[in-house]
Amino acid sequence: MNNIWNIVCNIYCYLHNYINNIPRISLLFNKVKLPLLCKWEEVIHADQNFTLEERAIILHALDDLLFFCNGLIKLQIIFDLDSKNLSFIDYNNTFIRADSSLHSIENADKRAKNNIFGLCEYKHNNSIKTLYIVVERIKTYNEFKTVVLHELGHALYMGHTMKPSIMHAYNYDDIAYLTYADGLEFAKIWHINVQDLRYLKLYHNYLNA
User: In angstroms, how far is CA 42 from the centroid of its own chain?
Assistant: First the structure.
């Protein structure tokens, strides 16, 4: 049965590379019994330099994340950040439209030995997160959305996962939604049952789903 879901979900994700804003098809996602009680509520202040189109994609990614979380997380993104206000950035959760020449991005490139698309930095005992997205390196709508979703996942303390998943270290646009592998990681971090999450029913061949 998992192989059938994999084929259908892979086709669904593939179409996202050519058609923007494809609606979620509920049949392809794990069906939950009840919404979860909220455990964490936060605001991220996003860069005012994001264009209107980029803001729409970011909010689309946020909507996908909240759908996946099934009520456990309440996260709001407000586009009110002056990216030159370093003192504000140091003590608030922020999302920055970064140039590749930014010091944090150059250092991350060196660590990865590659040109990264996004980054999440943790500060003050991991209580404050700064997210970056390097827009100049991103080519497509779906690539932009999945990078945003990946970095938002890090903001929720998710680590990298095996394929197929949004949180795989090198997922850019081959997967459109958070999957079972993402669900396992999220459930481990937040101490919940993975079946309480609305993940895309796309499984690794070696996962006992």
Answer: 15
206 domain residue, yes or no: no
- Decide: 81 and 95 in contact? Cβ < 8 Å: yes
Which tokens belong to 99?
């140039």
What pTM was computed for the model? 0.93
Residue 70 lies in a domain: yes
Structural domain span for residue 77 = 2-24+38-196
> How many helices and strands, by DSSP H and E, does the chain display?
6, 5
What would the pLDDT profile of 5-42 be if each residue is shown by its tens digit? 788 888 888 888 788 888 899 999 999 999 999 999 99
HSE-up of residue 28 (Cα within 13 Å, Cβ side): 20
How many domains is the chain built from? 1
Tell whether 201 is covered by a domain: no
pLDDT in tens, 117-144: 999 999 999 899 999 999 999 998 989 9
